[in-house]
From TrEMBL:
InterPro entries: Epimerase_deHydtase, NAD(P)-bd_dom_sf, UDP_G4E. Its cofactor is NAD(+). It catalyses: UDP-alpha-D-glucose = UDP-alpha-D-galactose. GO terms for molecular function: UDP-glucose 4-epimerase activity. NCBIfam families: galE (TIGR01179). Residues 3-249 form the NAD-dependent epimerase/dehydratase domain. This is UDP-glucose 4-epimerase.
Length: 320
């Protein structure tokens, strides 16, 4: 019995693979290394180089490794860039998921944990997002993740697929100094890159209706996220019921100002961020409630902001 982790050589996927191994579950990784790194997958884990668009490769992988379940992390994850590359985004995230589900159906693999996104909500009408908050994605990326959830739902009805989707906002930190966030679009890598280049990080707006005037968002530690992916897999293996989707949220969030101050403390690099204009349409505060995930998926914020920043900074420094 083996869990296939698509995108298992990426930042989030590699943490999921390590968490699965820690739980004693066998894994195999499929990754095309478009944004992942072969070194992120330990030599003890079988690695298959290739795309989830390659149905024949998926069928062979399922057969060769006795795959009984899938944790689907692979995808094109850049929301902003997806506006310029909608067709690529839909191909990777929608067509890729459909190809994966078809291979699973052909081989009678009936359980999947889907790495979705809080981008399915767009700009929600309330500051605290629950699973019932209306879905209004505002980028091809968010739309593709919502369609992915629909594909799982419909395949569940048609073929008895057992599934759940995990939605989250900003994933940060490191659970292993060898694993780090390489995204050129995420806040932590952008701030660290600026500091290492001798530049000053910037904040987009400091006049919001928040305690320090800067945006408040959900930031969750990648290791906590991985733990809940494994919990979902274990419940599927045990035949226990799951909700169709869960938010992995903090319930209160952190401000961008908090992050900048913590970065300065952790790195020992004193700086005052440059205050840039607001970005159009940027809400003051968006955080997600994680109550359902806490009930079912061992979800908890086990790392505070300082631990998130410190672990991310250590991993980034080691990678330099």
């Amino acid at each position: 019995m083996t869990w296939l982790v698509t995108g298992g050589a990426g930042y989030i996927g590699s943490h999921v693979v390590k968490a699965l191994a820690h739980a004693g579950l066998s894994t195999v990784v499929v990754d095309d290394l478009s944004s992942g790194f072969r070194d992120f997958v330990g030599p003890e884990v079988p690695f298959v180089y290739g795309s989830i668009l390659d149905g024949e490769l998926l069928l062979k992988t399922i057969d060769d490794h006795d795959v009984t379940g899938v944790i689907h992390v692979a995808g094109y994850k850049y929301a902003g860039v997806s506006v310029q590359r909608p067709l690529h985004t839909y191909e990777q995230n929608v067509t890729g998921t459909a190809v994966l589900l078809a291979a699973m159906a052909e081989k009678n693999v009936d359980r999947i944990v889907f790495s979705s996104s809080a981008a399915v909500y767009g700009t929600p009408p309330t500051e605290l997002v629950t699973e019932d908050t209306p879905k209004n994605p505002q980028s091809p990326y968010g739309e593709s993740k919502l369609i992915g959830e629909w594909l799982l739902r419909d395949q569940g009805i048609a073929a008895g697929l057992r599934h759940t989707s995990l939605r989250y906002f900003n994933v940060v930190g490191s659970g292993d100094p060898a694993l780090y966030d390489t995204s050129p679009h995420n806040l932590f890598p952008l701030v660290f890159a600026a500091l290492k280049a001798g530049k000053t990080p910037r904040i987009n707006g400091d006049d919001y209706d928040t305690p320090d005037g800067t945006n408040v968002r959900d930031y969750v530690h990648v290791a906590d996220l991985a733990t809940s992916h494994v919990a979902a897999a274990l419940r599927l293996d045990a035949g226990e019921p799951l909700e169709a989707a869960y938010n992995l949220g903090s319930g209160d969030g952190n401000s961008v100002g908090d992050i900048m101050r913590t970065v300065a403390e952790v790195t020992g690099i004193a700086f005052e961020p440059v205050i840039a204009p607001r970005r159009p349409g940027d809400p003051a505060r968006i955080v997600a409630a994680g109550d359902l995930a806490a009930r079912d998926l061992d979800w908890a914020m086990r790392h505070d902001l300082r631990e998130m920043v410190a672990s991310a900074w250590e991993a980034t420094r080691r990678a330099s």
